[in-house]
Design brief:
It contains six helices and six strands, in the order H-E-H-E-H-H-H-H-E-E-E-E. It has helices spanning about 20-30, 55-65, 80-85, 85-105, 120-135, 140-145; strands spanning about 45-50, 70-75, 150-155, 165, 170, 185-190. The chain binds flavin-adenine dinucleotide.
């Protein structure tokens, strides 16, 4: 695998609104501004594009089995699940459930004085806190140190040139025109 160069990614920082202390810590774990991509190895057993749920599990599993793994992420490690999907939605649902339970309290013989109101900014602040507390699990540092994975954080996504071999033919992923074009079609004859 070749790459455009080893560099700190801090020149193009990732933003997550609002940039409060929770989101700054989130970014420090999931796309650190001072991250320096490792020098690419000559060969990888596995190159994973995208550090969402699928990519993280695949990279960690392969790394633990001793494979030489590269993991490329253009935005935040953890992908949708950690950042906008599973984790934040469950934090919000938890708040909604509490509000609902209190509104139905009388049904269970509990008297709650006054009207139940929702402070949405506090709901969202808790969401950001929960997400940040979970983020070390998906951090670039953890994947590099604990699973031995080469983590490449690339703001503009996957740009590397990959060459692999399939049945003795040399395959060049850079020439792939669309995900629907099978890899086989860009494999050259034996060389
Ligand atoms: C609101 C919501 C709630 C959810 N709740 C649950 C739940 O409770 N339980 C559950 O199991 N699932 C839940 N999901 C689904 C879950 O989020 C997805 O199934 C999961 O995120 C899919 O993981 P993935 O790795 O396939 O893709 P993604 O999480 O989308 O990750 C893809 C990654 O690839 C990166 N990427 C893309 N292109 C490139 C490129 N060219 N170069 C480098 N990187 C690239 C992206 O930045 C991203 O980080 C929820 C989803 C949503 C939206």
């Amino acid at each position: 695998m070749t790459q455009t160069g080893t560099k700190p990614v801090g020149t193009e920082p990732v933003f997550v609104s609002p940039m409060d202390h929770y989101n700054r810590e989130l970014i420090a774990n999931l796309h650190p501004a001072d991250w320096v991509n490792p020098t690419p190895a000559q060969r990888y057993n596995l190159v994973v594009i995208g550090a969402g749920t699928a990519g993280l599990v695949t990279a960690a599993g392969a790394g633990l089995l001793g494979a030489k793994v590269a993991l490329v992420e253009k935005h935040l490690m953890g992908g949708d699940c950690t950042n906008v999907g599973c984790v934040p939605s469950k934090a919000m649902i938890r708040s909604a459930r509490v509000a609902g339970e209190i509104r139905r309290a009388k049904h269970y013989g509990i008297n709650v004085p006054g009207e139940v109101t929702v402070d949405f900014s506090t709901v969202m602040e808790r969401l950001r806190r929960v997400r940040t507390e979970i983020s070390p699990n998906d951090s670039a540092t953890r994947f590099q140190q604990e699973f031995g994975v080469d983590v490449f954080l690339e703001k503009h996504g996957f740009q590397a040139q990959i060459q692999s071999r399939w049945r003795g033919k040399r395959c060049d992923l850079r020439k792939r025109r669309s995900p629907l074009v099978p890899l086989l079609s860009i494999c050259r004859s034996k060389d």
